Amino acid sequence: MPYQRILARPIRGGGTALMLTFAAMSLCGCGETATKPPEKTPMAAEAITAERRAVPDLRQYPGTTQAVRRVMIVARVTGYLDARHFKEGTMVSEGDPLFTIEQAPFEAAVTSAQGHFNDAVAQATYARIEFERNQPLGESGAISGSEWDQIVAAVAEAEGLLEAAAGALDVAQINLSYTTVKAPFSGRIGQRFVDVGNLVGPESNKNLAELVTVDPMRIIFDPPATESAAFLAAWQKGSIPITLTVAHAAGSSSTHDGTLEGEVDLVNNTVDPSTSTFVVRAEFPNQTGRILPGTYAPVVVRLGTLPNQVVVPDEAIFRDTQYNFVWSIKDAKAHRNNVTVGVLWDGLRVVEGIDPGTVVVISGDPTRLKEGVEVHASVDTLSGWEKAKAKAKAKVKVKTEAKTKTEAKTEQKTGLVTGAAS
Fold it and tell me: 175-229, pLDDT tens digit by residue?
């Protein structure tokens, strides 16, 4: 290290002076070139040019599935429950017997009513015979008017009693038929609510079980009242297609990942003032019967087409606690643009707040993205981005299928080994 030495020598006149002399003339850094701070390299990023496109007007809502037909199986006559003819949770066909209520009292009632009916038939027959026998005498005046009136009245009374007896017999037979409780339509029967041996009837233990249809199925959802005009406009033009997703709806062998298609069959005519929403209902096929009523499922509704919308890939959208925004690139520098996001379709997001032709970042180091930072971007078109995305998706599909085949072979080998060991 260079150093300096301080020497003091007296100066005439009685004073003391300090004379600084340098033992070494070299200073720190002498003979070395001063280094400049390293220049920051532009951040690398991938970017896409925003474009205008016509996109489907897709809207998503939480929905709940609902059976097209749903009934409570009830006891319509009073008696002890003699038998149950179904296994809970299984499919039944229209007309299948579900329960039997004790029949003996109702069979006896039918027998009694049949006897009264037969007696009434006999009385009516005799009254008609008497009428026909005495009709010439009454018309000629051979018998008194009072006697003739009694004969006519007897016929009317006998016919009235016959009608009453016929009605009583019908009621008895209907009540007897109610002792065999049948399925009003085909569907899935639920759990029983009353065990065999209990007294059932309209006054006690009325509900026996619940029956629902499974195919087709409905789903209901509640859009906000502000969207009623859009729904009604689409409803008047024709069908409104919907897509719903239910986890494992079609089983592990499905190629649709639980996605089902349907159509709206009701746009309700009132708004619920307590929630400011209105009811929309759609119907969809449920051929496997694996979707149960009351299942939650997100619903995507297509109300038409939105023309000339500015779109960017959804990964171009950044979010903070208040805003959605994109990082645009102009003159090789990043600039933040707050945007309003709209419909998401096939990975493209409709945005308001930027113009078509704007270059936006879709990938890069988010910690370096700041206003004015220099960016070296690889810019692609939306068409190029879509092709790359489709290619990557195809690769993933091939890998997934190969993995599935490998797992199936492994399970088969395991099964063979297990069988041989046993």
Answer: 999 999 999 999 999 999 999 999 999 998 999 999 999 999 999 999 999 999 9
Q: Residue 204 has which token pair?
A: 């006690």
Measured between alpha carbons, how far is residue 51 from residues 354, 360, 371 in Å?
Answer: 10, 11, 23
Residue 100 backbone phi and psi in degrees, to 5: -125, 125
Give every CB contact of residue 28 below 8 A, 6+ residues apart in sequence: 1, 2
Helices and strands: H and E segment counts in the chain: 4, 23
d(CA 209, CA 178): 15
Distances (CA, A) of 254 to 37, 249, 406: 60, 8, 18
> Got the DSSP string for 200-252?
EBTTBS-EEEEEE--SSEEEEE--BGGGHHHHHHHHHHS--EEEEE-TTTT-T
Give the ranges where 238-357 is alpha helix by DSSP (H): none
Q: What is the pLDDT of residues 63-100, one digit of tens each?
A: 999 999 999 999 999 999 999 999 999 999 999 999 99
How far apart (Å, rounded) are the C-alpha atoms in residues 237 and 233?
A: 6
Q: Is 336 exposed, middle or buried (0-12, 13-18, 19+ CB in 10 A)?
A: middle
Q: How far apart (Å, rounded) are the C-alpha atoms in residues 96 and 85?
A: 9
Query: Strand locations in 280-332, DSSP E?
Result: 280-284, 296-313, 318-319, 324-330
Give CA–CA dist 364/48, Å, rounded. Answer: 12
Preceding amide of 216 cis, omega within 30: yes
Q: Which amino acid is at 132?
A: E
